[in-house]
């Protein structure tokens, strides 16, 4: 199938824009590859430290230095349901590695926080920066130079992007990401949403709400709604970093274990010298990045990846811009309806054909680079198949050629909507993004007076006082990465949802985040420059008419230009958000972070590249 011309054009534009930075990155990892692991050249004392705790057989293999040694970087903890299954992975991986004639060691652990626990709490202001901490912890884990390849064990929001950024710094090493899978389905998403909205209106008790939430988040495994965690898994598969079809197999099942074992065997193959050797930094290129953006649009994935994919690409010397997302959104159809963009969950998506059907249909439509490199080594055509256990219990793959449920998953030529539902907004309030894949068609343009807030809790307080029963645009500013770490503002979703359901025309404008669960409320997020950085949001006043137009792609304060130019910035006292719950330790990250449209990263800020391209 011929590649869609817009896909080809965007890919070429990214490659040209990235030429200098990508060349420098490849030169660096190629130099590291030529040097090879230093294990065989370590001093006797260094090497003895490296294998002191190993068993006899592993110790002998490491002493000889001939067989590949696989490093495990794990985000295990048993508070996060998604990461709890990783508890037994190291022993399984070591056993399988021995069977494959190689060795494996846990190189290190990385922190893994749960945005679901910290929503609306002070800890949420550490969430985005935990990605940078994870990237650095990954580098520390691999810095011992004991490894020929790496297995990344991570699932959730900042964890996979952090692992990916860290792994790309060691891009000379072959690397495979190993998922753990979603928990089985619990209470329906419609039922959960109904209780949340009743609670927001004071019509349900805390006990009723807790019962509904506990019935939804009920066992080991990833939460089943399609937020950032499951968008991560989709990305790793469509960018060729997972084994085919492995993203959404439930934890603690024979099939899940078989896939983990197969990942170890595959890494042993691609980590060994020879034709199959597949360094991560060479495998992951502009085609991989474009495939990731296409996957986000086709599935209605998390807007957090407008930050994370940009930062990941930058770690590989690739400059990705919001305009690239926007251009691809115009031609990539929405093929999936998974909560919050529908009532189904990721288990239903997987059962309908999941990633294999999605990938195959996109390739057939010319909307994926089917020739992109993968850890499986056969291009993306191999990812058209779903893993199963055959009659003898052996791992096999079955081709998926049709959707098993057209209410959940549709082919690219008969989608839920013709575009990916993402827009870049520009105007005198700055640049922002909006996800409209589940916003009602009559709410794509909202023009209403601004109501200004400096804290999401203030929105709830105003609602409780009965002050918001009208048309308005909630402007929640001083929420950006430099201000307070760019927390997600999910506490706003039920409140604004109630007001929209009452018939009011409401929207949100913020320099904070809303993730993949922003749902049906028009939300202009990631506004750049942020208010604390002299951004135009700091000029807004209560009552100013604001127009959010997702059709025209504009975000405007309808204020006389002369008055607007003369207005002074409002400043906010953010000191309370800079101490407590560890936030004082992150001051250096707040001071160093780049803008949201360049990935909100502290690593090698590249604002100038994006500004020049835009």
Automatic annotation (TrEMBL):
Keywords: 4Fe-4S, Carbohydrate metabolism, Gluconate utilization, Iron, Iron-sulfur, Lyase, Metal-binding. Pfam families: ILV_EDD_C, ILVD_EDD_N. It catalyses: 6-phospho-D-gluconate = 2-dehydro-3-deoxy-6-phospho-D-gluconate + H2O. Its cofactor is [4Fe-4S] cluster. Belongs to the IlvD/Edd family. This is Phosphogluconate dehydratase. Its EC number is 4.2.1.12. Catalyzes the dehydration of 6-phospho-D-gluconate to 2-dehydro-3-deoxy-6-phospho-D-gluconate. [4Fe-4S] cluster binds at residues 156, 223. NCBIfam families: edd (TIGR01196). Transmembrane segments: none annotated. It comes from Rhodanobacter humi. Residues 407-600 form the Dihydroxy-acid/6-phosphogluconate dehydratase C-terminal domain. HAMAP family: Edd. It is an enzyme of class 4 (lyase). Pathway: Carbohydrate metabolism; Entner-Doudoroff pathway. Residues 68-381 form the Dihydroxy-acid/6-phosphogluconate dehydratase N-terminal domain. Binds 1 [4Fe-4S] cluster. GO terms for molecular function: phosphogluconate dehydratase activity.
């Amino acid at each position: 199938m011929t590649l869609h011309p817009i896909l080809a054009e965007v890919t070429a534009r990214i490659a040209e824009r990235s030429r200098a930075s990508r060349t420098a990155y490849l030169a660096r990892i190629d130099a590291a590859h030529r040097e090879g692991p230093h294990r065989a050249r370590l001093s006797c004392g260094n090497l003895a430290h490296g294998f002191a705790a190993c068993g006899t057989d592993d110790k002998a293999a490491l002493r000889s230095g001939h067989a590949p040694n696989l490093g495990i970087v794990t985000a295990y903890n048993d508070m996060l349901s998604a990461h709890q299954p990783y508890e037994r992975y190291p022993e399984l991986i070591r056993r399988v590695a021995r069977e494959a004639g190689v060795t494996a060691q846990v190189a290190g652990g990385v922190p893994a926080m749960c945005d679901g626990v910290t929503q609306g709490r002070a800890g949420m202001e550490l969430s985005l920066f935990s990605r940078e901490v994870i990237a650095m912890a990954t580098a520390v884990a691999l810095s011992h130079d004991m490894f020929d390849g790496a297995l990344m064990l991570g699932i959730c929001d900042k964890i996979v992007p952090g692992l990916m950024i860290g792994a790309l710094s060691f891009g000379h090493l072959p690397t495979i990401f190993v998922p753990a899978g979603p928990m089985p389905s619990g209470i329906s998403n419609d039922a959960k949403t109904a209780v949340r909205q009743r609670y927001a209106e004071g019509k349900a008790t805390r006990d009723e709400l807790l019962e509904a939430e506990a019935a939804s988040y009920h066992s080991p495994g990833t939460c089943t709604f399609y937020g950032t965690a499951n968008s991560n898994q989709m990305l790793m598969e469509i960018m060729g970093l997972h084994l085919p079809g492995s993203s959404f197999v439930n934890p603690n099942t024979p099939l899940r274990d078989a896939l983990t074992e197969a990942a170890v065997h595959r890494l042993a193959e691609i980590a060994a010298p020879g034709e199959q050797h597949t360094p991560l930094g060479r495998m992951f290129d502009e085609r991989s990045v474009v495939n990731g953006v296409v996957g986000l649009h086709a599935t209605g994935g998390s807007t957090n990846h407008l930050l994370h994919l940009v930062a990941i690409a930058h770690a590989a010397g690739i400059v990705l811009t919001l305009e690239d997302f926007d251009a691809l959104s115009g031609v990539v159809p929405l093929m999936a309806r998974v909560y919050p963009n529908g009532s189904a969950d990721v288990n239903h998506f997987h059962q309908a054909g999941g990633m294999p059907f999605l990938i195959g249909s996109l390739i057939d439509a010319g909307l994926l680079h089917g020739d992109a490199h993968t850890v499986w080594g056969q291009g993306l055509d191999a990812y058209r198949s779903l893993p199963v256990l055959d009659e003898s219990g052996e791992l096999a793959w079955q081709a998926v050629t049709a959707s098993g449920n057209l209410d959940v998953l549709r082919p690219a030529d008969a989608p839920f909507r013709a575009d990916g539902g993402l827009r870049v907004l520009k105007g005198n309030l700055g640049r922002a993004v909006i996800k409209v894949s589940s916003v009602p068609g009559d709410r794509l343009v909202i023009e209403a007076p601004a109501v200004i807030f400096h804290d999401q809790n203030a929105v709830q307080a105003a609602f409780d006082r009965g002050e918001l029963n009208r048309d308005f645009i909630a402007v929640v500013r001083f929420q950006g990465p430099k201000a307070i770490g760019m927390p997600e503002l999910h506490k706003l979703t039920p409140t604004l949802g109630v007001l929209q359901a009452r018939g009011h025309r409401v929207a949100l404008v913020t320099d904070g985040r809303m993730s993949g669960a922003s749902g049906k409320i028009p939300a202009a997020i990631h506004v750049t420059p942020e208010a604390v950085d002299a951004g135009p949001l700091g000029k807004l006043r209560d009552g100013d008419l604001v127009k959010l137009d997702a059709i025209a792609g504009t975000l405007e304060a309808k204020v006389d230009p002369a008055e607007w130019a003369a207005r002074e910035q409002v400043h906010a006292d953010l000191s309370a958000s800079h101490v407590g719950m560890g936030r004082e330790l992150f001051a250096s990250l707040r001071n160093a972070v780049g803008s949201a449209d360049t990935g909100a990263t502290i690593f090698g800020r590249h604002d100038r590249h994006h500004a020049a391209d835009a």
